[in-house]
Design a protein that fits this description.
One of its GO terms (biological process) is dGTP catabolic process. The chain is of the alpha/beta class and 324 residues long. It has 4 domains: 9-117, 3-Layer(aba) Sandwich (Cobalt-precorrin-4 Transmethylase, domain 1); 123-201, MazG-like (Helix Hairpins); 208-246, no CATH class; 254-313, no CATH class. The chain contains 14 helices and 5 strands. The protein has helices spanning 6-11, 31-39, 53-58, 70-77, 93-105, 126-140, 149-169, 172-193, 203-216, 219-222, 230-245, 260-273, 286-299, 304-323; strands at 14-19, 42-45, 64-65, 82-86, 112-117.
């Protein structure tokens, strides 16, 4: 039971550990952080190169470049003083561990301890880390520094298939990892594209392009149009896409090098969406039979590639059972 008087507790002072995010521009601190800094009797920072220091000093905050031990920090708080410690990027593990040991000993009147986040990461902030890591790897890694769009193309296909496999297997941990691998391909290609002497672009250009496209193709979200069903949304999407691309055929833009069943289903989907009643070409051979199966699957809302993969997995299991 704590029997210390309020006066005694006030006399022990206060320690504020101020943490900041390197993903937010220096100087953009929360109002409680600025209040704590201005009210402090001492402001300490162990890192002389801390990115916040120039902005704090510009705002009139005197910062001492010091890294006191836990006992020294407690002494600085004696008499009711407030000391703000601007944490380094690694945090202050030695200091916080020392304060914890002192508090646990019961032999020292401890100051009030407060952890005050001065800036927060916005959603997507870790993407900045990925861009920075990719920049360094591109320069310093003997393998990555020599890669080209053409050389990486096969990895994009592999990662996309591994992502599909994780989705179909229902493996959440694998899904998160494979999404990261696909994201890496995007950032890697964008980093390579920055070096093109004729038409360079960056990951920011990539992001800006898809943002513009999403806004334009969702007039029911960002504009005055309305859509209450997925079919209406798809209609908006196809109409705005046709306006953007100025295509003369519904088949334009369909990659013909994708797997055959997927290609057939995509063609059937485009024709059906456009209201075209196109008889299937007649011919001999298994190719025409597979085409008919793919078109039938698409008309029934079935992805023929996914259906065939599921059947193939069942076949694989049957082979393994026969081997056992």
């Amino acid at each position: 039971m704590n029997t210390a008087s309020p006066e005694a507790e006030a006399a022990t002072g206060r320690v504020v550990l101020l943490t900041t995010s390197h993903r937010v521009a220096p100087g953009l601190l929360s109002w409680p952080a600025w209040q704590a800094l201005r009210a402090a009797d001492r402001v300490l920072c162990a890192d002389a190169a801390h990115p916040q220091l120039p902005y704090l000093r510009e705002a009139g905050i005197a910062v001492d470049e010091a890294s006191p031990a836990a006992e020294d920090l407690v002494d600085l708080c004696a008499g009711g003083h407030t000391v703000v410690v601007v944490a380094t990027a690694e945090g202050e593990p030695a200091l916080t561990d020392g304060l914890a040991r002192l508090a646990g000993s019961g032999r020292v009147a401890m100051p009030e301890l407060e952890l005050l986040p001065a800036s927060y990461d916005l959603p997507g902030a870790r993407l900045l880390d990925l861009v920075q890591v990719m920049d360094r790897i591109r320069v310093a890694c003997p393998w990555s520094s020599r890669q080209t769009h053409q050389g990486l193309a096969k990895y994009g296909i592999e990662e996309a298939y591994e992502l599909v496999e994780a989705i179909e297997d229902g493996d959440r941990d694998e899904l998160r990892e494979e999404l990261g691998d696909v994201l890496l391909q995007v950032v890697f290609h964008a980093r390579i594209a920055e070096e093109d002497p004729q038409a360079p672009f960056s990951v920011d250009d990539v992001a800006a392009g898809i943002v513009t496209k999403l806004i334009h193709r969702h007039p029911h979200v960002f504009g005055d149009e309305t859509a209450s069903t997925p079919e209406e949304v798809k209609e908006h999407w196809l109409r705005t896409k046709a306006e953007e691309k100025r295509r003369t055929s519904v088949t334009e833009g369909i990659p013909v090098h994708q797997p055959g069943l997927a290609l057939a289903a995509k063609l059937a989907s485009r024709a059906r969406t456009a209201g075209l009643d196109v008889p299937l070409p007649q011919g001999d051979g298994i190719g025409y039979e597979l085409l008919a199966l793919a078109v039938r699957a698409e008309s029934q809302g079935v992805d023929p590639e996914a259906a065939l993969r599921a059947a193939a997995r069942a076949y694989r299991d049957a082979i393994r059972a026969a081997e056992d």
